[in-house]
Amino acid sequence: MTLTTQPQAGTGVQPQPVPGSPGSGRFGAGAFPWVMAGAVAVSVCGASLSLNGVLRGWAWFLPVLTTVVVVSLTMALLRTFRAQPLLVAAGGLASLALILTFTFFRRDSIAGFLPSQATFDALGRHLRRASETVLAESSPVAPNAGIVLVTCAALGLVVILVDALALPLGMPATSGLGLLAVLVVPAMIKPQSVGWLGFATTAAGYLVILACSQWFAPDARTQADTARNPGQVRRAALTGGVALVVTLLLQLVVPGFDQGTFPQGSRLNPWGTATGLNPMISLGNSLRTPTGEGRITYATNSATPLYLRSVTVDRFDGESWSPDDRNANRRAGTGRMDAGHEILAPEQTRQVTVVNTGDFTSPYLPVPYAPESVNGLTGRWSWDPATLSIKGTDTNSRDQQYLVQSSVPKLTTELLDASSAPVQGVPEEFIRPPSNVPDIVRTTAESVTADSRTAYAKAMAIQRFLRGPGFTYSLESPVQNGYDGNGLSVLADFLTQKSGYCIHFASAMAVMARLEGIPSRIAVGYAPGRQTGATVSVAGQGALPEYEVDARDAHAWPELYFQGLGWVPFEPTPSRGVVPAYAQDSSASGGTSTNEQNNDGLVPSNGAAAPSSAPAPAPLPLPGSGTADAGNQLAPALYTAAGVLLLVLLAASPRLVRRGIRARRLRGTGTGRDRLAEQPLVWSELQDLATDYGVRPVPSETPRTFSARLRGSPALRLRSEPDPGGAKDTGSGADTGNGPGHGAGTFNAQTVHAVTALTEAYERHQYGRPAGQDATRHGLPEEAAVEHIGQVRQALRRNAGTVGRLRADWLPPSVLSRWGSVARWPFGVLGRAATRVGRAASALWRRTRRGLRRLRAG
């Protein structure tokens, strides 16, 4: 129902409907919360579409959709019943908890949706599973229950945030911060970035939020300006078009936007470039880096460049590979290390290597295999007897210079082929094959090794198969086809597509070797690099040639165990690394290098320099990849977004409270066109407005005295200034001219009338006859009261200056003074209590002394 009222005499201004009330939009009050909820749901669901590629497949989307819709509808329902903003947000949080319980913990809850102790126990398991997935998988990660739960919870919180920014906080434009928090994750992780579908849907929902905010609850001043300026829509369209063009062109000058057109291909990395190597997570992203980051130099007496091994990935849970640090078994100190198994090779090759890690940052130390001692390290380090991986206890690899003495058996095809004794002394986790291997992996392993009799022959058959002409090395195919990772389903896709990079080839050989009874694991580190042309002097070794590796050389390779010979590396990845002499087919050329120039910018292992035109530009690596904690792929984005949003909410809380108080006071209690405003509440709102803009009421003042002081204060400028053309303010309150002076005079006259009308209405309510005798004389209609308050507020804002307006909006003194009173209340209570106790104690002491005196006198 549209509220109408006659203009006040002399004002010439029609009153505006209450924002969000009936009549505030064309569709009525009932549609407002539901249309806004739909806009929020569309925008958040649109943003979540971009997570495809971060999460594998679409099985996760239905729980996300359900969560977003339930939270949005719950908040719309509460808003329909005029619930307070804080209650609406609390209801959204409660509905989020209930829908998550119903979706993920139905069997562990009361009645299927009420959390219990069993629910929280299951929640802990789900969160651990999500953490392990982030630590162990590269995107797209498997959408297990833990990851989907975290995703649903995060998006539900985003719904509440966007709703709070758009409605109670009155900042619909900044609601895009919540949507940006979702979009920033795929923008930094996926090589194809957000994608046009997710971006377009998010943008459409965001525009609907802005439209709903203006359509249903416009600011009175903006509404009036629109009426006076019919070209505003045209200017808004022009502004939007210019903003879009700037967005498309900005990527050409902002570092980090490398490929494609926004939103495709953006690689903005606010945390700087990656310098380390996280096992199985950032490998593909490190390889895609267009420039070498995390540069490591080393000098060695080895005849050929060395593989630098950082960590061993040996645990396979059926879904993904991950490192097992075996913290309980690790040994402190690296002065003396022992592989723990007997080496029966007749000849050992001992090597001395000096390593300088530079800005390479990782909890694991890159060393040649197998290290016997590492000296010169700073900080505390420990090593795993089962894998010889070295990990920092309270430090990392950054800026470390150390000397490694290593020893490996000199292997030959005859030694390996003769090593047919049963495997002994190898931990079960290196031997146990996965229980849910896809049929294509099992049948491929069986067919490839069908004609092989020994373990070595089987290993060579698998390597030969993977390096064959049917497979191609590609960094982009796994991402584009959605199987970039190391799980079993990824392995099945890789064997079908026959295209991938080192992690896929290494995983395939390790799994197929275990299926054939050969212990296996995966080593992650760096392939042999290239010579720098410099030498390093080492005591007792002379000048040794220096080599360098960086993020482009990141590599993974399988290691298979042979009894009496230990862990033996193989190289199944075509055009990468170096195939050892013992693993070459007789038909291969005599050289030891099979490393061809490829899109990673790698060079042959003989140390020749790479052609400068070889590397092709590729997306930047993940922000934070290779930091001290694996799994920080998402943490910087999430922590930064959460911190920014928390700061926004804290900064906006006084504004939110002030808007809520104003809305509650101006909400009428009557019905129909003649419903009356609550005059005491309206009067309180007038006093708070004056307080916010520097005119504080004095407790001893009467309403009329306060009104006169307000009208005479500089904050309202009751005396109009003459305009430059000499026009004078008529003071009549009517808009009788077209000059600036007439506009200013009309505005001041309206303000004077508004203050007077509010004062008279409050005095009639307080001191007039009972309302039942003549109701129309004892109050203003609600729409008139709202209009007068709006006029006073506009006058105060126009004369307050920028600082005064900001203070009134974001740090309103009327709210802060109440909060100060609340904060001081406990101390006041305690002070009064202490005073009473002190007085009581004094009185008791006086009575006690009088009693003692009487006793002595008697």
From TrEMBL:
State whether keyword Transmembrane helix applies.
yes
Transmembrane ranges?
31-51, 57-78, 85-105, 141-162, 169-189, 195-216, 236-257, 637-657
Q: Low complexity composition bias: which ranges?
A: 1-15
What region holds the Transglutaminase-like domain?
Answer: 494-574
Kindly state which keywords UniProt assigns to this record, in alphabetical order: Membrane, Transmembrane, Transmembrane helix
Q: Where is this region: Disordered?
A: 1-20, 578-627, 694-747
Q: Which Gene3D superfamilies match?
A: 3.10.620.30
The record's InterPro entries line, in alphabetical order, gives: Bact_TGase-like (IPR052901), Papain-like_cys_pep_sf (IPR038765), TgpA_N (IPR021878), Transglutaminase-like (IPR002931)
Spans of biased composition, class Polar residues?
584-600
Q: Where is the composition biased (Gly residues)?
A: 734-744
Q: What is this protein called?
A: Transglutaminase
- Organism the protein comes from: Arthrobacter globiformis
